[in-house]
Write a structure and sequence with these properties.
Length: 147
């Protein structure tokens, strides 16, 4: 494994691991009755997102793009390449993960500013992010849809 791939994985652990835990925590937060306990979580959740999840995303994105540029996009996307459909599907699912990340961040801001949020939304996104992560990692390591 190259240095870039190693830091790609470290970024993914911070980004997706952080997001999965944070979404579940905010689901619990949204359903809490005690106002003091709700308030106490705000600082922890903000720091987890901005000091863990966001830098992890940037690290995964930058290392991924550098690896992509290194071998050239044709290596991953051209018809007849060894990756077949794997990379097309991977990048589509990655886009989905980025949208989910931004939705969770927007709902986190609402929870912190207006003290309002739905437990169901956070628990559902917690599960979907986890599922997408499993699908992408298995696809990448097995190249099951390779050409
Ligand atoms: C943020 C955008 C991303 C880009 C641009 C990107 C791009 C890349 C590239 C170019 C490679 C090298 C493939 C090779 O030639 O061997 C790679 C490896 C990999 N990526 Fe990503 N990736 C991104 C996000 C993700 C996500 C979200 C996941 C998992 C949920 C993921 C999982 C992996 C895995 C498991 C590897 C194989 C690492 C190894 O063991 O060598 N990537 N990625």
């Amino acid at each position: 494994m190259t240095w870039l791939a190693a830091f790609h994985i470290i970024g993914l652990i911070l980004w997706l691991g952080g997001l999965i835990v944070l979404a579940r925590l905010m689901g619990t937060h949204a359903a809490m009755e005690d106002p003091t306990a709700r308030k106490a979580l705000i600082d922890f959740e903000k720091k987890s997102y901005f000091i863990g999840v966001l830098p992890g995303f940037l690290l995964a994105l930058i290392t991924g793009l550098v690896m992509l540029g290194g071998k050239g996009p044709a290596n991953y996307f051209a018809p007849g390449s060894a990756w077949g459909l794997t990379f097309h599907i991977k990048m589509t699912l990655v886009l989905g993960l980025i949208v989910l990340d931004q939705l969770i961040a927007a709902k986190m801001r609402k929870l912190h500013k207006e003290d309002e949020g739905s437990k169901g939304f956070f628990m559902a996104t917690h599960g979907i992010v986890g599922l997408l992560m499993i699908v992408i990692v298995v696809m990448m390591k097995t190249n099951i849809l390779g050409g």
